Amino acid sequence: MPTDFISYQKSGYFTKLIVDYLDEKPELNSLYNRFPNLGNFKSQLEEKAQNYSAENRKILIAALENQYTHFQISDVTKANISLLSNSKTFTVTTGHQLNLFSGPLYFLYKIASTINLCEALKKEYPTYDFVPVYWMATEDHDFEEINHFNFKNAKINWNKESHGPVGRLSTEGLNEVLEVFASELGLGENAAYLKELFENSYLKHNNLADATRYLANRLFGDKGLVILDGDDVSLKQLFAPFVKNELLHQTSFQKVTETNSLLKTTYDIQVNPREINLFYIEDTIRERIVFENNLFKVNNTKLAFSEKEILELLTTSPEKFSPNVILRPLYEEIILPNLCYIGGGGEIAYWLQLKSTFEANKVTFPILLVRNSVLLATEKQIRKADKLNLSWADLFSNQQELFTEKTKEFSKFNLDFSEQKEHLKRQFEKLLVITNQTDKSFIGAVKAQQTKQIKGLENLEKRLLKAEKRVHAEKLEQIILLQNELFPNQGLQERKANFSEFYLDVNDKLIEKLFQELKPLELNFTVITL
After folding, report:
1. How far apart are CA 433 and CA 229, in angstroms?
2. Residue 452: CB partners within 8 Å, gap ≥ 6?
3. Inter-residue contact 102 to 499 (CB < 8 Å)
4. Listed residue (244, 407, 258) closest to 321, CA to CA
5. Is 80 exceeded by the pLDDT of residue 440?
6. CA-CA 20 to 30 A from 411: which of 219, 334, 433, 485?
């Protein structure tokens, strides 16, 4: 095939805001700090160094050591945690939900991109150190988004009720999920490894946060990945002054609303702020904090606090306050010596709405990098695409449009009647001139005849195209089958398939390939051959 990547802009899967950001459109300059290229990281780390204290480093390291207490970790990860005490060490961070067994493939791509960027930065700036961080979204509550994963044609579901932060959710009941997954996996060495990995991750840990930490550590620990849980008392104490500001002044609501008003004339808005962008959380509660009748109330509960009471609660129990999507990025950047956040298009779109909130809170806004996107293809699929004379641009295109274009390409005849329709229009233009000069009462009849004959040509074009589709049905069916293999349900493979489906065939080579092929600062949709 002609190329092993396709540009983000041409892939058709990115919003106008992200495409314009990647194109460095000047009208978006005020929405980000620095564009993601190696040269810009020098100024970014210098700015962050001025805005991140040694005390914060001590608290971060203590929190990480505590979180890893019962986990066996690689020497590389241990070294990375220790390095965080050095003022010349910075992080590159990605975040993700606690999807069951990692969820869609792009979980792997986010982390591989983060690790590879750290390596690239170390080569460019050898006197500094760079630590890859996976921020676990333990305080989310959208259990329906994470309680399943797809394996080939099966959807592996975890049926359970969840009301509080998902990281605290008990893993009870996942033995039944393993039984279903094991029956789908079948036999073989790779199948046995996947069963063991699921069992040790979910059946030997009591909550979803610990299970996910174990899984991510098994997959990426040897590369030095540091896994951070923001649902942590000591880290929340660092965030407490900003929570107080949010409760009393609603700064983020004002700033994001201002940004949204500028964006909405041209772009779709990804997130809208609440007046207070905080949740109250306990093990089985995650509800919005609202201000009504001079009281801070917890939505859908009977909990209510005066200003004095809620500030006292913040002092004694900061872990009960959880940032929503608007404030979580601020929380991340307060507790980490972070230079860059790597996320999907949707994530980067909402980060672009937040810079003024960071400025108001005097926190350095990170470089924003759209994660690597990947399409995995087997050698057999590549050969089939070559045989059918398909480019990657073809395979990324709309299925019906691809079907029609390939029918025309295969046909011995020119099935595009644009030339004939233009000729017909010119003839009728002449007739209208004559009619206008003789008897204007015939103008309506001439126009009606023009419409009728052009419609007749269009119908003939459609019928001939349909007939040609029947003639080339076998070849066209092969094209559609191949596209459906690569794009399940005509969507992105990386958003549908789980890594286990590919690991079953190629084992560790899958992750090895990601580290070999992914280049975070090259903004392309990469095709990787397995």
Report:
1. 77
2. none
3. yes
4. 244
5. no
6. 485
Angle between helix axes 473-486 and 443-471 (nearest 10 degrees) is 80
Element spanning 5, H or E? strand 5-7
Q: What is the pLDDT of residues 155-189, one digit of tens each?
A: 999 999 888 999 999 999 999 999 999 999 989 99
Closest residue by Cα to residue 98 from 63, 147, 171: 147
Measured in degrees and rounded to the nearest 5, phi and psi for residue 188 equal 120, 165
* Inter-CA distances, 184 with 48, 115, 156, Å: 48, 32, 9
pTM of the shown model: 0.86
Place of tokens 């780390």: 45
CA atoms within 13 A on the CB side of 387: 11
Tell me the two tokens of residue 368. Answer: 């924003």
Q: Give CA–CA dist 503/512, Å, rounded.
A: 11
Phi/psi at 90 (nearest 5 deg)?
-130, 165
- Burial (0-12, 13-18, 19+ Cβ within 10 Å), 54: exposed
pLDDT at 355: 96
